[in-house]
DNA sequence: GGCGGGCAATAACATTTGTTATCAAATACG
DNA sequence: CGTATTTGATAACAAATGTTATTGCCCGCC
């Protein structure tokens, strides 16, 4: 599971085994909350198999903001770092096989490796990328119509359209399920 | 101008003077672009007097995404770090007095101070805060009505409502100027 | 002090999107 | 295998928001 990351890091075997040994494997069924809105994150997850969505409660309706698939790391990252209550719930969509690491281990690893400038850069870059993702998603919400957002999703994240139930997609796109149906049927006609 | 930051940092006077000496003062008139969409950021700005908006072009219409006022640092931060073309334009609204620092000086300072764990934490936290801001703005776009977003703005950033022309505010809220007018008149009647 | 242009309010109408309800199809699971 | 549940499509109507056009105001500038 971790071999895919091996060549990114120049760590000696002892360190590498120490760090990867902090991850534990678990299986969970579909629709299981790994972190609940308002709770303080204890773990970070790496997906071996399955998919996960991130959502928050808006007046009783859930609003999905992100999807994750195999090999993605998942956490409510800002809360994880600062120990704040999470603004979102993290929940499996399909049955999943996950690897998780406890916050205290993650903190230790980050502190150790960030003594090295190359890791420091990497950490900062990672956070910047996260910011950039939010920015892009936010901009797309402002400038694109729901139909355009749907087309972008089909193009950029085809897995989502293939694997995720449509009502989650509708809430991710910011429209009602009915309207997403309309968009799809309109696109089908045009084609 | 920099005294307000003095007590946040435990630097000896030599370093402090070195770093603050990298900032130059300039005056610019209203509606001046400090950075244009597509250009690579060369400078970062600190506002002594005036206000600034960040916007991007959407099919000929401009969409405002942020406002900045006195004592704010302004940059297209993700692009500034990576040397990417900026996705946004940074433009003065009022005549401004600004301090700016060149990227090469900023890079040197960041590299120097991030040897110290306390600064490293500070830098990472700053980026996280930025991410958190985007997230909040994004979530508010999804969950709040335009009227609610307007009320939030009045409450949280009264300066914007007082100093910024209404059509910029409308585009910031994601509605037409006509609809913002409607919202205001509706609120006035209810009151 | 007058004038042109940017700015804001409003009305009328068009379009988009949401809501509710109903039905059909797909899927899960005992 | 059959039944319950989830999922998706569609129609009809309601509400929100955009577009265009008009008017009046205010403010900077000659």
TrEMBL record, chains A, B:
PROSITE patterns linked: CNMP_BINDING_3 (PS50042)
Domain Cyclic nucleotide-binding: 11-116
Signal peptide from the UniProt entry: none
MF terms in GO: kinase activity
Pfam family, one: cNMP_binding
Name of this protein: cAMP-binding domain of CRP or a regulatory subunit of cAMP-dependent protein kinases
Keywords recorded for this protein, A-Z: Kinase, Transferase
